[in-house]
Amino acid sequence: ELIWNPELETFTGDEYDRKAVMGHRKWVETEKARMAHEADLYVKQHKQAEKKAKLASKAQLQKATGELYAAREQLKKAQKVLVKAESISLIKSGDFSAIQLTKDKDLQRELERERVLAEKKMKREEEKEQNRLKREKEMEERRRLKEIANLERRFPLEDKLLVEEINKLREKDLPIDLPRDLPEVHDAVDSSFVKLCEVATCLFIFGKMLGMQPLKFHELAEMVKLPGPALAGLYRDLLSVLLLDGSQHPSGLRRIRRWIYTMTSEWGCVAWPDVLARYILTKPGVGDMVKSAACQLQEKEYQKISYEDHVELLRFLLDDVVETRLVHEEIDRWQEEREDFISQKREARMDLNRKRRERAEAEKEKRRKIEEEKKKKKEEILRLMEEARDRGEDATAIKFDHLDDNDEDDEDDEERFQIPEEKLEYQGDPMDRKAVLAHRKWVEAEKTRLSREYEVYIKEKHKRQREEQIRLKEEQKAIEEEESTHDRMQDALDRELDKRPIRLAPLGLDRNKVKYYWNMAGQKTAIYAQSPETGDWKCFSDEKTLDDLLGSLDSRGKRESILLENMQRKQASIRSSFGKEGEDVTSKPARSERTRSSSRLASVPNYSENGSGRNLGTLSSSSTESDVLDCEQDSLEFLGHELESIAITADKCNVPYVVASEAAGDDATDNPGWKPWLLKMKAALKDEEGLSIQSIETLLLDMEDAIWNNFPNAEDDFVASGKINGDFAEMMDNSSSDEEIDERSLEGYAKMKRKMRNKLLWFSNQEREAWKQLVTDSKTVSQVGYCAAVLEQRFTIVQRTMSKKKGARR
């Protein structure tokens, strides 16, 4: 039916009917196409049926072959089980030749391979279990640390409330420890030592600013314990700064200018203790201990004053020095610079914390992405297993090994580069020798290929591990370098802050508000602790106490966290200093050959009572060749020679030596000059017992009486009898109050009165009596020297005024 009949192509109708002819031809073509299509369908169906039959027969053959090989495998397995059982029984009985129970080499190799594989599998299972336990332990540790971190976010707290808050948390069975007890410090420290440290620190901070030479703590301690010229020079330098500030003060008290004249003249090396005592006693609001020390200066020489009194005097002077305008301006500048440095420290710390947070967030984001990838892979595998179960395949063949946390250290790396067990055995016809040899050749080639791939894989894996380790080391090195740079910057800023100290800052405070100090005035051999209740000082200098203190300080407290951070940052320096012995301050210091003078004062003008300018470069010493006198007898001799100089000057100025008794007599015109007075002084200087304060006082009063009789005297004012609480001294030092007023603003009478005063040795009889009373009551050389300096100052002013008047008359 599918074969074409050629007779159908012949047209049997009217040949001249063209339309019928064309319709016949079209039908022929259509019919041929239909029959060809049906033929193709028939052939295709026939071939498919034949193919199905062949596949069915082949499947039956494969099924039969598979059952055959399965039966063979079952037989082998039974044989293996039997051999294993026999091997185990022989091994238990002590016969270790179980490996040679069978002569079948293939079976022997199979048994050996199974044993190796079983050992590897067991080892892998053990490693997987260990890794699982390790991961669980790490997760538990992370969970615990996270819980503790959540708890510690409440810290730092007030140190006194820390224990109460921790006890509340412990009641909830939270893993948090109580603070440890602080160690006790037993070594007591003398309060004078601490005060001396304060003095040394203040001198170190402001000494260079004031033009003083640097002074170490042990040098200061030697100076104070064994007073001498060096200590006197220090007193004079500090007093110079204070007098300079007082001379520039708007009040401009007369006594301050008189003190400055005394300090700038030759009398300064002798009279400075009395000037210092007067400066302290005339100042309001002075403590009792300082007043007592100043009174000691007026009653005995400064070398005989106690160590504690010297410390109090130095502290008082330095307190006043800090209040001067020069120091205040410098402190204001320091404060601005300190604020800049503190802001730099704060910005650097904030920048470091920001970078740490960014790194932590990056690590967190990286872990999140890894977890998301694992989750996606797990979902993909679950989907594949579901599809395999739907197809009726074995879904257990899909493994989750690549979902392990240690993908790079997967235990199945070697197994993945081995030929599967089902492919190692030839599954075809064992009688087909050619196929068996081909299979063996393929196995050998495949093993070689897999071995090469495994080596390449291991190399790449080790390379990735090395690169990862290098990357981690570089990151860690960068982090360490960043933190090291931050620490160096913080140390540099701390050093700059230490150069501009506003006050001595402690290391910090503990929970009991005890202050801890280190490196006070360069004393690094111990750490000092000050009690907040009593103010007592204690110290320790052993590493055991330091370790106990560092271990007991709790970073969860606000105060102790700062103390702990500062001590840890300086721990290496503190430990290295503990091993050194302290400076020896008990030996007698060497004498200073020259008195230290403040070079900063050299160009500052001094305003004496007559208004003339004078440099304060000699405020600490009379000249570059003058020394502070360290002996009372030397000081008396110096006073004698200086009084001789006044007498010689008076003689040259035609001031006759006339005492009160001679002035009243008839032979006053035959006075031989100052020769009798000079002979008295010469006799006193040559006395075997040496000069005495009484002899100097007598000669000084005699000189004043002669000079007083030569110049116009003040009107006879009422002189108060007696001396009550230094009224005479105040009368002498502060007897005029209108000298600070500009002369142009005075009225005529006041101008005339001021001019008349310049012609008078003393402004009033009360002032003269006050001066004489001070000379009579003098107990020290410095007091006599101060009175002599006052007399010389007034005599110089009056003599200069009288000389100008005589020159104008000529």
Short account of what is shown:
This protein is an all-alpha fold. Helices cover 64% and strands 3% of the residues. Helix 6 (229-247) runs parallel beside helix 10 (307-322), helix 9 (288-299) crosses helix 10 (307-322) and helix 18 runs antiparallel to helix 20 (675-685).
Radius of gyration: 56 Å
- Helical amount among residues, as a percent range? 55-70%
Low-confidence stretches: 400-409, 583-626, 716-743, 805-810
Number of distinct beta strands: 7
Distance between the termini: 176 Å
Q: Mean pLDDT, as a whole number?
A: 77
Task: Walk me through what this model shows.
The chain is mostly helical. 64% of the residues lie in helices and 3% in strands. It has helices at 18-92, 105-152, 159-170, 191-206, 217-225, 229-247, 254-264, 268-281, 288-299, 307-322, 325-391, 413-416, 421-424, 433-499, 543-552, 558-569, 571-578, 632-652, 660-664, 675-685, 693-710, 727-733, 748-757, 765-776, 781-809; strands at 187-189, 508-509, 515-517, 527-530, 537-540, 605-607, 613-615. The strands form two sheets. It has a five-stranded antiparallel β-sheet. A two-stranded antiparallel ribbon has the order 6-7. A hairpin with a 5-residue loop joins strand 6 and strand 7 (613-615). The radius of gyration is 56 Å and the shape is elongated. The N and C termini lie far apart (176 Å).
